[in-house]
Amino acid sequence: MPKYEVRHDDLERLVGKKLTVEEIEDILFDLKAELDDYEDGIITVDYSDTNRPDMWSAEGLAREMRGYLGIERGCPKYEVTPPKQEVRVDPSVQKIRPYIASAVVHDVNLGEAGYEQLIQLQDKVMLTYGRKRRKVAIGTHNADLITFPAIYTSARPEDVSFVPLWENREMTLAEILEHHEKGREYAYILEGLDRYPILLDSRGKVISFPPIINSNDIGNIGPDTRNIFIDVTGPDEKAVMIALNVIVAALVERGGRIEAVRVVYPDRTVVTPDLSPKTFKVNKSYAEKISGLRFSDSEFRDLLERARYDVVRVSGDEWTVRYPTYRADIMHQRDVIEDILIAHSYNRVEPKLPNFMTKGGASEYAKLEDAVKELLIGTGAQEIATFILTSRSVIERAKHSPVVELENPVTETFSFVRPAILPTVMDFLSANTTEPYPQKVFEVGDVVVADEKRDTGVRTEQHVAYALADSSVTYTDVRQVLEFLLDNLGVAYELRANDYPWYIQGRSAEVVSKNKVLGHIGEVHPEVLESFGIEMPVVAFELSLTKILEVLR
Amino acid sequence: MDVERLALSLSGLERKVIRHVDSRRSVAEIAKSAGLSEVEAMRGLQYLSNKGIVRLVREERKRYVHTEKGKQYVGRKLPERAILDALKDGPKSISELPVTEEEFSGVVGLLKKEGLVEFKKGKLTLTERGKTFMFPWEECYDTLDCLDEESYKVLNRRGLVTTEESVVWYAEPTKLLKDVLPHVRDDVIDAITPEVLRSGAWREKEFRVYDVTSPVPKAYYGKRQPYYEFLRRVKDRLYALGFQEEEPGEIVLPMFWNSNALFMPQDHPAADIHDIYFVKSPKKYAPIPKELVKRVREQHERSWGYKWDDEKAKRLVLRSHATALSAFLLASKPKIPGKYFTISRVFRPDEFDYKHLLEFNQLDGVVLSDDITFRDLLGLLKDFAREFAGTDKVKFKAGYFPFTEPSVELFVKHPEKGWMEIGGAGMFREELLEPFDIHVPVIAWGLGIGRFAMMELGIQDIREFYSKRLSYLRSARKVWRV
User: Fold this and answer.
1) Cβ contact (<8 Å) for A439 and B369?
2) Rounded to a whole number, what is the distance in Å from the CA of A391 to chain B's nearest CA?
3) CATH domain B68-159 topology
4) pLDDT for A265-302, tens place per residue?
5) What is the pLDDT of residue A199?
6) Rounded mean pLDDT of B371-391?
7) Residue B353 forms contact with A (CB below 8 Å)
8) Counts of helices then strands in chain B (DSSP H, E)
9) Cβ contact B371–A355 (<8 Å)
10) A347, A372, A388 - which closes a domain
């Protein structure tokens, strides 16, 4: 969820209305955002939608608020003057980072607030919508310092050097990737390439090294920069065009005039940005079916316009609407319907309850689980809960075999999925050796066991493990519990002598029913007890509830 | 308590000692005359003292004891006696005396000072006084029970005797003892046994009266784990609201089922290594259903405009959200209309602290019906707020989830904490439903049960849900409300 800061007074100026913090908080809530913090006139906005980069700045927010408040209606119109400048795309860059979109915005009045917003917006767009710059990278430059046409080409890492932003010496592209903060952060995008993308002006001066860093000379803009050249690069032309639209639309809010740029690819020429609105068809009856609300035509039009759509044509039930091209998220009528509901305000929708009856109930598993717990509590045992994630050490000290290991654990303590519950129960007992005995505990929960027959090689099961620790416990004590449990569940079973590494040889058995091995029971081996620091005999059993359910079905 | 009843409350031990406290006596003496061990007598007296029948007095006493060196003369002659006796036969040179040189030098000064011996021609000779003289300590050296202060000083200086501090308990009668004593009977029934029942002894005898208010040792019985108990109660409420619980699902899944089948694009920010656990072994990849994948893939490429990568979809991960189970539900031809829910464990690489766990339970549900609407969704959420947060004060925020549109977040007003988010919901996107051949609106919702549980269980640290402390589990109050 993108979080960004706006100045209270700047937002008011952009909206064109005085608003208290409380009023802003309420409006944000309706517009998919939360007021996360307010301090010294700075509002921190937590905006939910990762598909609305146009909303991640004071300018975009203000534009939407004007619609919401009815100050302005319909799809915003943008005038774009014909291109005077050119960006020429060299064939060599097309295999690396093929697309570029550019614009020049004149007479921008950024000031401190606008400058902050522009930098912040670029960052947020590149991070979230741009997938950490892999999909979209943006550069903004002082247009007056560039000699056009600009050349979007590629270069060997050692062949080009320039002074990158925040540095005072020339560095080669390779050096930047190795030593510059941004270079190190984003080098992964260029990994394995022998040529890197580079944007030059006609004199051969470096404008930027996308997607890494701008030049310190012509790349550097400030609060007073009036004419801004923007380059957006990436592997997805649509995303690149939308990101450019988001930036120029924000600059228009600061008084900017957009001048298009001609992008000359080897095989075609594209004029960017393309800000001509797109059209989309919405069925009013569908909107009513989904929302559960009834709309008169005028109401429907009003909501659409406040959500910043133009109504182009109404033909029976079908409404053709126009929406601004900085919107990246309109894929289905549903997206428009949500905007209509937002303009209506969710909190003015009257809730109702579904008018059909359903019978609720527990899953088969939950019924068994509950019966098992009730019976085991009847034996005086305390239910415990341990984590499903555990360590190799816990599994191996309990003489079990690891099954699922994680690729990216946060800590070694939680780097395996438990293959059984007994190991984590032993770990539990090990943490409580100073508590009064007897200790009778049990746990019911998920485990992941090996299963050759499954595509994944594993299977999730639900198990129960029961352990009894006291100075004089024997196999008989735990076997009585097992029999009590299975008899009451109505499971016909037999015990077959069988050895397990974690039980004393000759004092353990497998529990079998209808030729399925349900689990095992025995006296825990002193070696296991010792490795867990337990100086008390422990007897235990573990059963698969998943298999018991299969047997009972 | 009246004295009769008090007398009837005396245990066997108390009855045995009470008659022996006729005056101030030491516990040892009482034990001896009552035929009990000192520990038993003390316990009985303590019970009596608790009831105010006797008074226990603690006295610290000094006792003379032999040192290791002094012990060797017990039952034997002390050096001074050995010398005096030997000299009765006539003068002797030092080497002829039956003492060691060290013993001799230790007492010779003493013997001379008292004028008991003298040296004559190099030989030690007994004086007249020495013939009959007795040192005051000689008589009680073995028992030390009549040792006077002066003698002690001498023996102590010689390293033969020292003092030991000891505590002696005395019991004294109180006025109450006198009142109670006439009522003390020996023919009362202590424990009710099969023998007592069989013999009918209870008909003739009275039962000893217990002090039913005195503390007893703590005992621990079986009960549910508090957090799991809380979850069970949540489920009960959902059953009552007409929701059918889904059967448990797989924890290890291909990314396809965890995310992509829910219309989450493969390059979605939440599909990152920082948000999902990837499986290293036993397998990294698993095949995915061809026909369904084809449909999902086409849908993604059309809607999100990116190039689908089968390898990414096949990558095995740990279930990262309960909505993953909804994908299976949709694929399993659910009943329409129908209401389903699940509480399942999900796994995310996150911080591990008082606010975050690496695995936690999520409550997720779906409602499928041809005539279900956004209004019904809000109605359901309002119902949940009432049911789980006990409030009608709700606020809806427009939300964003990749798999729902419209999307909404549920906020409730907490009396102290103000507005807080307790759930997210929405209507599944049609792009998501189409590949499953589901053509009715489907509501999907999730509630933040962790937050409710923390409030209900009164805990500040979320790790307590899985507390390893048996003492906590044994002492935690049962989760219930009238």
Assistant:
1) no
2) 13
3) Arc Repressor Mutant, subunit A (1.10.10)
4) 999 999 999 999 999 999 999 999 999 999 999 999 99
5) 96
6) 91
7) no
8) 21, 17
9) yes
10) A347
